[in-house]
Amino acid sequence: MQSKNKDARTLRDTIESHNNNYTLVRLILAASVIYFHSFALSPGLHDHLSMAFLPVTTVGGLAVQLFFFLSGLFVAQSFNKDPHVPSFILKRFMRIWPGLFVCLLVTSTIIAVINKHPTFLQYLKFDEFYDYTLRNSVFDLTWYIDGLLKNNASQSLNGSIHTLPMEAKMYVLLAFIGALDMARTPTRLAIAGAIAFVAVVVPGIVELLPFTLLNADYSRAAAAMFLAGVCVYGLSVRLRIRLWQGILLITGAVVSTGMAHVFLFYASAAWIMMMIGQSPLIGKVWRPKQDLSYGIYIYGWPSQQIIMALAPIHLTAYVLTLVAIPLSTAFASLSWRFVEKPSIKFGKDFPAHANALTLKKHRRVLIALTTLLIVLVGARWAAHHWASAPVQPMQATIVNFGPQESRAGEPINLQPNGESAIWITTDGGSAPDGTVIVMDGHYLSSQIAGNVVTARVDPSILATSGEKSIFLERRYADRIERSNEVKLKVR
Questions:
Q1: Are residues 142 and 273 in the same domain?
Q2: What letter does residue 163 receive in the DSSP assignment?
Q3: pTM for the complete prediction?
Q4: Core-most of 192, 195, 308, 367, by most CB within 10 Å?
């Protein structure tokens, strides 16, 4: 039961009540990310605030790390209340995926509409337009759609989403902790979180895993902050945020160097955030009722890009920030009302009542998301198989390839992993980025290195005899470029 004396509240009391400022904290962090990105999307001014945090981090980097800390804190709280792994997975999926999926579709469509050439109608017949939403929604990150934002400082449609795969990995790690029955009590969560924290921060341990956990420069710090949040939740019933703690942490951060300085810097930042989170004075000033931070975060970058594409004059980073925050907030409000809130509600209701009545109750959001997904997949398939853009000759021409002969059912250019491969050399310049090898009607996943293009060959292509046509192809929204054709003889 919460104490009447607010100063006596534990951290657990604070985060489990509505009498806290963490929604406001999240909004500040989301706005900080927009501020930081403005200097990349509107070059010309120096980000002096980020310079103050160097070499440890930047304004955007700090905001992201604190987001991960809060995620660990509150997701651990949710998992502890309902420590069933399937329920946890569904809740996390419905919190992240629907909003992201709709954001990708809406913002890419708006940017394509305001683009003058190629036209929006041409993009509707361009498979890469649909790939952008479909690939990013499963965290196969791709940043560009050919021809869009070509006059902007960056052509990336949404740079903010690069942190979401790491967030998803942390959910998987927490689900694994739950599968080991370590999420049932706060103490178990604290122990499991501490062990995982040590494994992440000590170099060489997570690298022993059979998969890549930390694949970006910010990943180790992000994972550490998430797991620190998990640990803090586990200890939250005993923690009270006090001024003397901040004095010790900040003093230690100022006088220390090396890794101790980095550790104390982030610990100080987390303490300041938790101090703001429980402050009664700040709560009296403003306490938002809706948590729009996720929407502001994912809509922030595309909002900035839309503004820069439409602005008749160059906007400074500061002006861009001031304009982008209201626009992204408007997007976030609509996303919360029509996508995120109903999706979250389904994620909470279905594990408790997994029946047809629950599905019927939430049929609107489920039908809408399913329909959008089916339409996108179908449109992508149609755009890929029924390409209507004019075909033009590619400047790069095939001058050699190998092998040129093979036997049916036998591998070619056998690789160490047992796969077949083909290589092509070109003249007239390198093949354009995005070029693929087309072999017997199959589009092969291809790599370009100078004037050499290579690709893995599926065994089914080599299973039958005959001449297999081979050419290079690069698709654009308004045209398709193809090289000359050569043939592989399969006897």
A1: yes
A2: G
A3: 0.90
A4: 192
